[in-house]
Amino acid sequence: MADPFRKFRYKVSVGSKEAGFSEVSGYDASIDVVEYREGNHVTTPRKLPGLTKYGNITLKWGATDSLDFYNWFKDCTNGTIKRETVAITAIDEKGQDIASWTVKEAWPTKYTAPDFNATASEVAIETLEIVHEGMERTK
Fold first, then answer.
1. Nearest one of 66, 61, 101 to 85, comparing CA atoms
2. What is residue 32's three-state secondary structure?
3. CA distance 52 to 59
4. Which domain of life does the UniProt lineage start with (predicted)?
5. Which CATH number belongs to the domain containing residue 89 in this structure?
6. pLDDT (tens digit, 9 = 90+) per residue, 42-68?
7. Most CB atoms within 10 A, among 42, 67, 74, 128?
8. Cβ(63)–Cβ(22) under 8 Å?
9. Closest by CA position to 134, among listed 45, 59, 55
């Protein structure tokens, strides 16, 4: 049996841009359950598949002078929703792609600026939450 993938080596591309993020989380999918009771079943309803729902993805990165992701969010606040394909790829120790997830029709729904504290020594982190309309494991 092969070794499991490590979660600390990955890359993320948003549209044509590839960027480094300190954390990527929240990409999940679930199917709603629709319960249906037939007249001849007294106590047990049937369970049917309903809508598929996808969780929001959160991207976190160290603040720099780049405004690319902030501007993507800002454009959405002005009514210009630019949907992108997001690819999240796990990388092995040799730098080879070993697993990939593709997220379709993504756009930002929330931006969080870093908080600052004069007594702290951490990196300032920006956060972007994106919504999407589907994901697929491609590798």
1. 101
2. strand
3. 22
4. Bacteria
5. 2.30.110.20
6. 788 889 999 999 999 999 999 999 999
7. 128
8. no
9. 55
